[in-house]
Structures are given as C-alpha cells and as structure tokens.
Design goal:
Layout: H1 2-29, H2 37-68, H3 70-73, H4 79-87, H5 91-103, H6 108-115, H7 121-133, H8 138-147, H9 150-164, H10 168-177, E1 180-185, E2 191-196, H11 199-223, H12 229-263, E3 276-281, H13 283-288, E4 297-299, E5 303-304, H14 307-316, E6 318-322, E7 327-328, E8 333-334, H15 341-350, E9 365-368, H16 372-375, E10 378-379, E11 383-386, H17 388-397, E12 400-401, E13 410-411, H18 419-422, E14 436-437
Parallel strand pairs: 3-6
Antiparallel strand pairs: 1-2, 3-4, 4-5, 7-14, 8-10, 9-11, 12-13
Helix pairs in contact: 2-5, 4-5, 5-7, 7-8, 7-9, 11-12
C-alpha cells in the first residue's frame, strides 16, 4: 500500500514538474501588449483559474505540512510562518489557510468547490470557519460565495457563527480577548493600520470619526477638491489623534496653573509629544531641505518622509535622531553588559526587526554574538536583534546566524553554514557600515 502511494506521489511530482515547465514558459513568453484586446479578458480569467487551482493544492496540503514538522526543522516558530514565507502572504493569511485545511475533511462540498477552482483561499477560509460552527449552513455559504463579493460572504458568515454560538456572551468575550491593533509599512512605504475588536467598540470609533469625516468633506467641497470617503476617513483619524494629544497637553498645562495658584510654584507639567519615533536623516539633507543621491530621510517602521515633514516633526516631537555625520558609534566599545543609548539607536536603525531572515517579528531582544561573560564588552558589530523565538533557538538549541551582518539565515548546529562548521570566528564578521548617531 505504501509503495503504491509513493508511486502515486512520484507521478504527481512528474506531472507538476511538467505543468511548472509549461506555465513557466507561457508566463516567460507572455507579452501583455501583444495580446489583442478582445482576448485579454479571457486570457486573464484563465490565469486566475490556474492561480486558484494552485492555491487550492497548497491549502489542501497545509495541514499535512504542519503535521510533517518540517517547519520546526527549518527554524520557523510555526507552520503558519513557514507557509507565509513560502507563499509570500501574511502570517494571518497563512493561519486562515491552515485553519481551513484542518476542517475541510469534514466539509466535502467546500472541499469539492475548492478543488474545482470555484473558491479563492480567502473565500474558503471564511466558508470553512463558519460552516465548522454550523455544518447545515455550508450550502448557503457556498451559494453566497458564488453570488456575493468577499465582504458579503464575511457578513453572512458572521451571522452564521453568531446564530450557532451556544453562549453569545462567551463569543463576545472571546472577540474582546482577541482584540488587536497592528501597523505595518507596505512596499510603497505607506503606513497601514489593521484593527479588530467588538462591534460596539467599532461603533464608538466610527461615531467619533463620523463628524470629523463630514467636516473634512465640507472643507474639501469649499476648496473645490474631490476625494474618496476613505481619504476623508483617514484625515478624520489623524484629526482625532491630534485632538486627543491637544486635549492632554491642555489639561496638563491647566493642572500646572492650578497647582501654582493653590500651593505656590508647581512642578512643570509634562507635555506629551505628538510623535515618538526614530528618524534617520542625512545632515546635509536636513540643512538643504531635500534628499539627494543616496541620502536618507526616513522614520523607522513607518517609511520615507520629505525633509519638510521631518523638520515639522522635529519642531513638535521627541525623536531619537540618527544623523550620518554625527558621532561614530560603530567603533565604540562599551564595557557594560547592555549597549549604550547611542548603540541602541544605531542598532534599531540598521536592524529594526529580527535578524533571522524570513522572520516577520519586530519586537526583539539584543543578543551578543560572543557571550558578554566571555568578552566583557559590548560592541555594535557584535550585536544582533533577535525575536524571542529565535533567541530561544540560539540559547537552548545551539542554532546560530550564518556569518555576515543584517538579515540572514539562522541554521541548526548540523548545518554546514553554522559558524562552528564554517570555521568563522563568531563575532569577528565584517562590521556593518559605520552608523553615526546623535542620541
């Protein structure tokens, strides 16, 4: 039986290799401008169907990939992270894919629609999640998926889950416990925000934004400009944040004045900054007012900003500032265990996330390549920021980053690239370009 299965697997690999070869040739030869306009829509639809079928195969296999444990041997913290690194999607998207894969065996109609290329991965995840709560709703969910956009399917799925909840209050509490807000910078350098929580909290936020959205719309209309509702909603969110910051500062100053009136001179109130971040800007660019050539003007974790914006922020903010012509911290040797403030700023700029390649985490711990107990000093070139997972792999399992600087592979002790095998002297790799810090 096992031999027959292995022969079947070999046949699938052979067929997939052939398909990959054909598809690679077709895409490689594809010249969009040479496709006649009457044919382009049908050709795009055919590629979309191939894409859905390939994604269906990845989804069906996801639970088995997790069971194989290969992700653990490759140093990933979870199967979702391995899937995300392989497919180029977010960890949240891979988590949804894996969850769907695990329940598909109990949802044959959904699995059949997925295999037929009728459902996208996102649609499959929504249907599987809701149908797992109420299997009798599977057919109606599939009908909605075929007739409605993804937003409509999500609305219907939420209704199914709410109706199937044995304890609606517990479901509500579960949503509250899983509330989250995260931000990230996309490939264009734009700041993005994603929030999740209870509907009533969302209603409160939207109620606060509503008047500000209307105000932004009226101002734009008076100015003769026309933008989308989404653009006005973003402006409203910024206005809400500015208003909250202004109110805090006014209350702090009022408290200071009251204290002075009632009990003599009061301690100066602490006015909170509007912005708090890490700004890197070339000194010449800051003086000139614009960047040139290889110069930078960026906020770590957010993205590039014009020098004008940087100047405005410096006028109302508290920022850790990294300037290329300031004091050289790369060559400084600090005898303490932890890095100096200047070293921390420089390290945050050069490595804002985990040093292990493929790791999406930005919350890190500073790790000494040579244990401080041995070296008794802290040098910037010997420090690597590591997330808690990869720091534990290094500490407990003797994994190590390969030789080099910046983002690079972390490998197990039996990997030939491991410093113990490569013959490299840990901690003496080529130092990163000198970072100049003023902070």
């Amino acid at each position: 039986m096992q031999a027959a299965a292995e022969r079947g697997d070999d046949e699938q690999f052979d067929e997939l290799d052939s398909l990959r070869s054909v598809l690679g040739r077709l895409v490689g030869d594809l010249d969009p401008d040479s496709v006649p306009l009457p044919c382009v829509d049908a050709l795009s639809a055919a590629y979309a169907e191939v894409e859905r079928l390939a994604a269906a195969g990845v989804t069906l296999l996801a639970r088995r990939v997790a069971e194989s444990g290969q992700w653990r041997r490759e140093g990933f913290a979870s199967a979702e992270e391995q899937l995300a690194a392989r497919s180029g999607e977010t960890v949240a998207g891979s988590r949804q894919r894996l969850a769907a894969s695990r329940v598909l065996p109990s949802l044959p109609a959904t699995a059949s629609a997925l295999r037929a290329g009728e459902l996208s991965v996102a649609q499959t995840g929504v249907v599987a999640d809701a149908a797992n709560s109420d299997a009798s709703a599977e057919s109606s969910l599939l009908a909605t998926a075929r007739a409605e956009p993804l937003s409509g399917l999500r609305t219907q799925a939420a209704r199914v889950r709410a109706a199937a909840a044995a304890d609606p209050d517990e479901a509500h509490r579960r949503i509250h416990r899983s509330r989250s807000l995260r931000t990230f910078c996309d490939r264009e350098g734009a700041w993005n925000l994603i929030a999740r929580g209870g509907a009533e909290d969302g209603s409160r936020i939207m109620a606060a934004l509503g008047p500000l959205v209307d105000q932004a719309f009226r101002q734009a209309r008076r100015a003769g400009t026309h933008e989308s509702h989404a653009a006005y909603a973003f402006d409203a969110l910024v206005a809400l944040a500015r208003g909250a910051s202004k109110c805090r500062n006014e209350r702090a100053l009022a408290s200071e004045r009251t204290g002075a009136d009632e009990a003599g001179p009061a301690t100066p109130a602490r006015v909170r900054p509007t912005h708090l971040g890490l700004l890197r800007v070339d000194l010449e660019a800051l003086r000139r007012g614009a960047v040139a050539d290889e110069e930078h003007c960026e906020i770590t974790g957010v993205g590039p900003v014009p020098v004008r914006v940087a100047r405005e922020m410096l006028g109302e903010s508290i920022l850790k500032l990294v300037i290329t012509r300031g004091s050289d911290v790369a060559s400084v040797i600090h005898l303490g265990r932890g890095p100096t403030a200047a070293q921390r700023v420089a390290l945050l700029w050069s490595s804002p996330g985990c040093s292990a390649s493929g790791c999406p985490r930005t919350r890190t711990e500073i790790d000494h390549r040579i244990p401080w107990a041995q070296s008794r000093h802290t040098r910037l070139a010997e420090l690597d920021p590591l997330c808690a997972h990869h720091h534990a792999r290094k500490t407990r399992d003797n994994w190590a980053l390969v030789a080099g600087t910046g983002r690079r592979a972390m490998v197990p002790p039996d990997d030939p690239r491991h410093p113990a095998h490569a013959g490299s002297r840990t901690g003496t790799d080529r130092a990163p370009p000198a970072l100049r810090a003023n902070g």
